[in-house]
Amino acid sequence: MLRCLLCLVAAVLIIVLPTNPAIAATNDRYLVRFLHVTEPIDLQLDEKGETRSYSPESLLRGKELFEASCLNCHVGGATLPDPQVSLALKKLQGANPPRDNINNLVAFMRQPMVYDGSTETFWCRQVPESWMTQDQIESLAAFVLTAAQRAPGWGTDEF
Ligand code: HEC
Question: Quick one: three-class SS letters along the chain?
Answer without folding.
Answer: CHHHHHHHHHHHHHHHHHHCHHHHHHCCHHHHHHCCCCCCEEEECCCCCCEEEECHHHHHHHHHHHHHHCHHHHHHHCCCCCCCCCCCHHHHHHCCCCCCCHHHHHHHHHCCECCCCCCECCCCCCCCCCCCCHHHHHHHHHHHHHHHHHCCCCCCCCC
